[in-house]
Amino acid sequence: MTRDQSLDDGFLELAISLAGDNTAGGGRPFGALVVRDGWVIATGVNEIHARQDPTAHAEMVAIREAAKLLGPDLSRCTIYASGHPCPMCLAAMHLSGIEAVRYAYSNEAAAPFGLSTAAVYADLARPFHEQRLSIAQLAPADAADPAIYRAWRDGTVHHAAAAARSPERVAAPAPFRQRAERRWPVPAGRKTRP
Ligand SMILES: [Zn+2]
């Protein structure tokens, strides 16, 4: 066994151990590590249950923790995951520059327990119009040359699009609005309505 294989095995064992420990608290059996240059930068376990957050997969939690230390560019990092990554986590790995992922248990092994994401992979491989999710572009007038993208590139502030919309059209129904305002107060100096 080479040194790298030994390291891989050790990191995977740790990910599996985290996954096992997570079930004690009612969590799902998934754990993950972000490793760079042989060092564990961050760990994560599936926290969907604890956080009531459907995106709190072990890999996502580990990526977020690693990014707190390293910033959003996670190049030179490897993820070790107890289970086959789902499409969301795999996309997050691509977008954050993660260079490699090593996982222990396959989707096939997870399927009998209802823990496989193979069906989502299959759905995403289909054209938009054949997917379960309704996906449609509702193109604005400047769709071919978005003003907000140009303003971002040029370092200017773009207000025209917001001004063109009536607050009544974009406002959420009152119960949702009240809840949102209660939980996330609008910063002083920023008005949500004219
Ligand atoms: Zn995932």
UniProtKB/TrEMBL annotation:
This is Nucleoside deaminase. Residues 6-118 form the CMP/dCMP-type deaminase domain. Keywords: Metal-binding, Zinc. It comes from Paracoccus cavernae. Residues 168-194 are annotated as: Disordered. Pfam families: dCMP_cyt_deam_1. The keyword Kinase does not apply.
